[in-house]
Amino acid sequence: MPQVQSIRRLRRNGESVASIARKTHVSEPTVRKYLAKEDLSAVPSVRKPRASVIDPYLPVIEQWLAEDRANWRKQRHTATRIWERLRDEHGAEVSLSTVTRAVARLRREFAAERDEAFMDLVWHPGEAQADFGEVDVLLRGVVQRMHHFVLDFPYSNVGLVQLMPGENAECTCLALRNLFEWLGGVPERIVFDNAAGVGHKGYGEREPRLTHLFQAFQAHYGFDCSFCNPYSGHEKGAVESKVGMVRRKLFVPRPSVWSLENFSAGLPDRCLELATKPHYRKDTEERGLFSEDRAALLPLPGKRFDVVTWRHMKADRYGVAAPGDGIAVPRTGRTRAEG
């Protein structure tokens, strides 16, 4: 730095570049470099990261750790197990301590990402979220654990309900069909829970694996659908809270049900009676906003979808059916069969 100061002082005194180079015993390009430099402030040194033997295997480790998030916590990879798989499956010549440090760092990074704050999603009229909850009802005098299907419209915060015996694809499609017909239209997009019976989306998968029945149902009514990531309830928080609210408002005390179909037919009207309060963020009644949701719905198709899955069953002499070649029985439980 004293030499730089001398170069700049000689220049201020009118010395030429060649004269400065001779007097300071440096080259002329060096003189020009320090004369052209406007800022001599100290800058932090940048330490170049040194390559590690574990670097080529980091994508593989990240993939294994991502898959672990969908598994039971007692069946996840330990650092030792990852080291063994790298050694046996990939021929990696790395030490256990190196793998342990890398796994710990990746897990800390994932924990930091998971603890980040979330932004509110923006929902447009005509978009919906779907989810199931569980309730006890007195079905024909017997207490039964049933499932209430909730179709929530986040724009208006209005949720519609159907009572179903299960959470499979048949029950989901039947509940949706009933609500579509009550609404007089079809939502443009529906967001489903990853655990729904209509399909499943695993970690790292862009497209969910859908059941054949739901694929036909979706094509028939023409709506788009998307699935939440595993263990990501915040991605459909509106319907998550609506499931609990409906349980408290409509199923406490425990209702007595004789006809499941008739009971479900009256639930949407009862849900709409709960929408007389102002929206929790908009200075408008929820039922008024719900009219905008209904106005944005897609039209119903000309023909009703038959929610049924046919399976071939073989009956013995006692009338007990078992899977195999024989009569085709609908999975919905309707007493209809074809030979």
From TrEMBL:
InterPro entries: Homeodomain-like_sf, HTH_IS21_transposase_type, Integrase_cat-core, RNaseH-like_sf, RNaseH_sf
Glycosyltransferase recorded as keyword: no
PROSITE patterns linked to this entry: HTH_IS21, INTEGRASE
Top-level taxonomic group: Bacteria
Integrase catalytic domain residues: 121-309
GO MF term (any one): DNA binding
Keywords: DNA recombination, DNA-binding, Transposition
One GO-annotated biological process of the protein: DNA integration
Domain HTH IS21-type as annotated: residue spans: 2-65
Similarity comment text for this entry: Belongs to the transposase IS21/IS408/IS1162 family.
Protein name: Transposase
Species assigned in the record: Bifidobacterium longum subsp. longum
